[in-house]
């Protein structure tokens, strides 16, 4: 299971990178069209919003797996190994709660958007499929957080 989660996290991180590249290219062509041809891409803003949302949620699982979230190491350095393990467990519990909450709220939002028939303004794309994909990515991040909580031997002691 650990290997599967690691691989899925890695592939989602690659997808996050692809979404960022697409965002960058879209913004570049929009700016070039706007300033040199007086013809910006009218749909650029809505696609950038969707791609940024995807890149953030796609990157969460890998960041969680690598324990790459922002942390402050002031207190752990002064604690004995047992205290560091307790703090690490508390951090893992917090990660499970946050990732689970993000997943839950994204699924709720996607359902609401689907019921309301929400579409992007210019292209008329349904928004809920994108949000469902983000929710699944957040679910994987939550699964990674649970995996890290259940495998305390994998913790670094700083």
Task: Please tell me about this protein's structure.
- Helices cover 73% and strands 0% of the residues.
- It has 158 residues and is mainly α.
- It has one domain.
- Helix 1 (2-36) packs antiparallel against helix 2 (44-65), helix 1 (2-36) packs antiparallel against helix 4 and helix 3 (81-116) runs antiparallel to helix 4.
- The longest helix has 36 residues, at 81-116.
- Average per-residue pLDDT, rounded, comes to 87
**DSSP, total strands:** 0
Helix residue percentage: over 70%
- Which percent range describes the beta-strand content? under 5%
Largest sheet: none
Q: In terms of quaternary structure, what is this?
A: single chain
Low-confidence stretches: none
What would the principal axes of the Cα set say about the shape?
A: elongated
Offer a quick outline of the entry.
This protein has one domain. The two termini are 26 Å apart.
Give keywords.
158 residues; mainly alpha; elongated
Question: Which SSEs are present, and which pair or pack?
Answer:
Blueprint: H1 2-36, H2 44-65, H3 81-116, H4 128-150
Helix pairs in contact: 1-2, 1-4, 2-4, 3-4
